Amino acid sequence: MMPQSLLMRLLLLAAAASAATAAGDGCSTGCNLALGSYNIEPNQNLSYISSLLGIDDYRELPYNNPWFGNLDYIQAGQRLTVSFRCQCLALPTSPFSTYLAGSFPYRVSLGETYSSIAAQFNNLTTAAWLQATNRYPSSNIPDGGIMNVTINCSCGYPGVPPEYKVFLTYPLRDGETFDSVEEKYSFPVQSEMDSSIVYIPLTCEDSCCCRYSAK
Questions:
Q1: What's the short name of a Pfam family annotated to this entry (predicted)?
Q2: Domain that holds residue 167
Q3: In principle, which of 35, 138, 147, 191 could form an S-S bond with 168, CB 3.0–4.6 Å?
Q4: Count of domains in the chain?
């Protein structure tokens, strides 16, 4: 079995590429289950977050969040783990440029921009990535139009031990660094990598999600 420290180093090196680089990786298939770490902001509740991420009933969330004792009482700053299908998608302007992501339909309201929409997903995506993965010009996003909000994900890498079944898309938040993630998860990372997202491999015990299948 590959030593965990080496495994984590390889995974973080591969996962921390920019979205533009990820878009050209030439995927051919996705996977049924990926995870995303959503950082809860003030004045957000689980009903609102569930509606953003296509979850029909927020009471499904305990599958991946057993530490939430009361789903009707959450605190800003907590991280919510959400599950979704990781698909192999193509850029609308370049069908041969493929990338792995979950896709979430979003109905645009009057005056919204790529930046304002991306902000609601709390660093799981960016305005630049939304513009790259949708056909609307930034100056002409139609009121009532449907935008595909794409969140990059991972289905694993060659050589990953079989117990690592799921990968978590983990955005670094303000004040969080590669060093702090290294300390939290006890593996080495490369601090010179220019990215705000890493993919963390999880076992069934880590993720509490192997019994759950994304829709």
A1: LysM
A2: 4-102+153-206
A3: 35
A4: 1
Residues 136-163 have pLDDT tens digits of 999 999 999 999 999 999 887 666 677 7
* Token pair for 197: 């997202």
Burial 36-55 (b: 16+ CB within 10 A, else e): bbbbbeeebebeebbebbbb
Helices (H) and strands (E) in the chain, counts: 7, 6
Task: Say if 39 falls within a structural domain.
Answer: yes
Half-sphere exposure of 2 toward its Cβ, with a 13 Å CA cutoff? Answer: 16
Please enumerate in sequence order all residues whose Cβ is within 8 A of that of 191, keeping only pairs 6 or more positions apart, or say none: 177, 178, 179
Q: Based on the number of CB atoms within 10 Å of its own CB, is 186 exposed (0-12), middle (13-18) or buried (19 or more)?
A: exposed
DSSP per-residue string spanning 32-54? EEEEEEEEPPTT--HHHHHHHTT
Is 48 contained in some domain? yes
State the pLDDT at residue 72: 79
Q: Tokens 């609102």 belong to which residue?
A: 48
Could you count the other beta carbons within 10 Å of the beta carbon of residue 90?
A: 14
pTM of the model: 0.80
Domain assignment of residue 54, yes or no: yes
Adjacency order of strands within the sheet including 94-107: 146-152, 94-107, 79-91, 31-39, 166-171, 197-202
